[in-house]
Each structure stands twice: as C-alpha cells, then as structure tokens.
Amino acid sequence: MTRLSILDLAPVAEGSTPGDALRNSLDLARHAEAWGYNRFWLAEHHNMVGIASAATAVAIGHVAAGTKTIRVGSGGIMLPNHSPLVIAEQFGTLESLFPGRIDLGLGRAPGTDQRTLRALRRSPDTADQFPQDVMELVALFAPAGPDQAIQAVPGAGLNVPIWILGSSLFGAQLAAMLGMPYAFASHFAPDALLDALEVYRERFEPSEHGTRPYAMAGINVVAAETDAEARRLFTSQQQAFTNMIRGTRGRMQPPIDDIESFWTPREKAHVESMLRFAVVGSPETVRRGLERFVETTGVDEIMVASAIFDHAARLRSYEILADVGKAAFCHRSETSAA
C-alpha cells in the first residue's frame, strides 16, 4: 500500500505573517495525524518572504511538540549550509525529545541564492563535499567510541533515519550506494524522475539503513469539491511559479479567475512543465491522478505539497486527499494481492 505524507513549505500568504504560517503548519499537522498521513516534513529555504521554515529544526520541534504520533522531519535540511556536527546535535536533540518520530532528509542544493549563501557564511563549493558530509553525519549518529574526541551530544547512538533528497541522478546514485531511502523532488523538478528511480533501484546496496530500496516522490495536489474550484485554488501556485521565473518571489497570492491573463505563453509552458505531475480536481479526478502517478513510478510513498492560499481550503484539500488515498491504495493493494 502506497503511503501518503505531507511536505509543508509553511507558506506565508499575502496579508499574514510568518507566525501565522507556522501556526497553520501545526494545525495542518494535527489534522494530518488524525487523517492518517504517515509523515510531515518541512523544508529549509532562506531569504524568501513567502516561506517561514528557514529555521527548519526549530519548526520541526514546534510541530512535533504539538502532535503525538505522526513522523516529523526535514524535506530537507540543505547540508552544505551547515556543519554535520551542528545537524547531528539538532536532530539528536529532536530525537531525544520525540523518540521514534524524527526524520532527517538531506539535500545538496543551498535552498537560496548565492548572495544569501555567503550571508550564511558558507562557500558555494561546499556542495561538492555533500557525500563526505553525509558520511560524517552518519558517523556522528553512531555510538561514540571510548576515545572519540568529538561527539554529538545528543546525537551519538541515536537512530535518526536519514533520507537522501534529490532532483537529478546524483542523489539517486548516492542514496543507492549508501543504502538509504530516497526522495525525489518531482513537485518542482520532474524531468529526471523516472531515470532517477531506475538508477536508485538498480544500484541499491543493502545497508544498516535499509535492506531494500524505498522511494518517495513529491507531487502537488489541490483537491476540492469540483474540478473548477480546484483549478481556481491552483492558480495561487501557478502565480508563485511564474513569479519565481520572473525573479519576483513574494508572499503567496490569492487565487485568480483568469490565469491566462497573468502569464505569457512562454511562462505558461515553463510552469506547466515544472508542475506536470500536479493533480488538481475533484475527488474522482484526484483519485485517477494518484493511481496514474503510482502506476507510472511505482513509488512506495507520495510526498504531497499543496500550496493553497486559504488555510481552510488547504485543510479541506488534504482531507479529501486522505479519503481518496485510502480508497485508491487499499483497493490497489487488494487487487494486487488477488
């Protein structure tokens, strides 16, 4: 049975504050827990006025403290921005506070622009050290030896599952080599999805992190009572991606009635390519879209991002998705078993 999880970018809607966004994240996580979602991840982005989760470990602690059973983690921590020791300490602290519920997804991109990267006191070439940094982080989570000079406290000896995130073949190859679970960012960079999944599965080497490949893929889902309503809600995300192309990032904008008047034909083609796996529509439309995506990719888990301006509408979208997912994937599992 394919699992459903949530990637929350803690969106700051026009007219609201980052505090509002983080409180909405916790509210969504509480609902998601009740609806049966498997995990709830937040992502590291810097210098973006429309995303409130820059201090990702802090945001994860906020959500974990307000929930009880759902797994909470990072999708992801951009490891080149940090020393492995600091991340081991942060996620060791989270695991100590919320044992058995913390995930650590690691990305290689900076999650920001080059100027902000310098403000983070990091060099652009730190991304080249990503594999070594991952191995250093793994070593810091291992039980400390008697003469070990540097330890992560807390962190050493704790079982914090590490995921490799990616949008190219690089992450797939690394995850396979290390025997780690793998998550592909097809919710905004879908081009290499199928090739990356193939590489990951073919080259996977069993390890202490996992005995078999475990793949997750991100998609955007906007669900509503009707296709027309869902398409209108989706225009907030379409505007955001268009503004990203224009270099004019800002807070999330309310939906509009006519997206065609907002973008140029070239911008439309670019955005639709980036969002081509998006599933937008009524419950039945979403069910068909989810089933088609799983049949195409064979992923073990879907990480869903839903950039919806109105918080109540976003909750409703995830509620519909939870109901649809249970029906679609339970039926699929029973059919496969038969």
UniProtKB/TrEMBL annotation:
A GO CC term attached to the entry: cytosol
Residues annotated as domain Luciferase-like: 5-300
Keyword Transmembrane helix: no
Entry similarity comment: To bacterial alkanal monooxygenase alpha and beta chains.
PANTHER family: LUCIFERASE-LIKE MONOOXYGENASE
Protein name: Luciferase-like monooxygenase
Keyword field contains Oxidoreductase: yes
Taxonomy, superkingdom: Bacteria
CDD domains: Flavin_utilizing_monoxygenases (cd00347)
Organism listed in the record: Methylobrevis pamukkalensis
Keywords: Monooxygenase, Oxidoreductase
UniProt-listed InterPro entries: Bact_Lucif_Oxidored (IPR050766), CmoO-like (IPR019949), Luciferase-like_dom (IPR011251), Luciferase-like_sf (IPR036661)
